[in-house]
């Protein structure tokens, strides 16, 4: 593929005809029909090779996805997710118990506090 790209660049460079004019400037003529055909062929070859490479990559990715290692990773991730859920549930229960204890203590404290009343005489 690298060779094909290099060939297309070289072909594009030589496809145009450059001539020096009498007044010292350069005149560039467009690509010849042969150069245009060669560039089109190189472009088509590049498309074909790119398509083939994409198919090979897709096939390899499917093989990896369907492999035993991928299945193990998937089940391990599922198990880890379940462990996280369980840990979060236990944490929530523990926090709920602590909040309940704190609420009961606050109620008890409120009941046992004696309120003092003051009377003022005028």
Shape: elongated
Overall pLDDT confidence: 78
| SSE series | HEEHH
Largest sheet: 2 strands, antiparallel
Supply Rg.
Answer: 40 Å
Q: Strand content of the residues, in percent?
A: 5-15%
Class by helix and strand content?
mainly alpha
Distance between the termini: 107 Å
* Count of all domains: 1
Multimeric organization: single chain
Pick out the low-confidence regions: none
Please work out how many helical segments DSSP would assign: 3
Query: Helix coverage percent of residues?
Result: over 70%
Give me the side-by-side strand order of the main sheet. Answer: 1-2
How many E strands? 2
Short note summarizing the structure:
By secondary structure, the protein is mainly alpha-helical. It has three helices and two strands; from the N terminus they run H-E-E-H-H. A two-stranded antiparallel ribbon has the order 1-2.
What's the structural blueprint in terms of helices and strands?
Elements: H1 2-15, E1 17-20, E2 26-29, H2 33-65, H3 68-112
Antiparallel strand pairs: 1-2
If you had to describe this structure to a student in words, what would you say it looks like?
With 122 residues, the protein is mostly helical. The protein has one domain. The chain contains three helices and two strands. A hairpin with a 5-residue loop joins strand 1 (17-20) and strand 2. Helix 1 (2-15) runs antiparallel to helix 2 (33-65). It is elongated and about 125 Å long. It starts with a helix and ends in a 10-residue tail after the last helix. The mean pLDDT is 78.
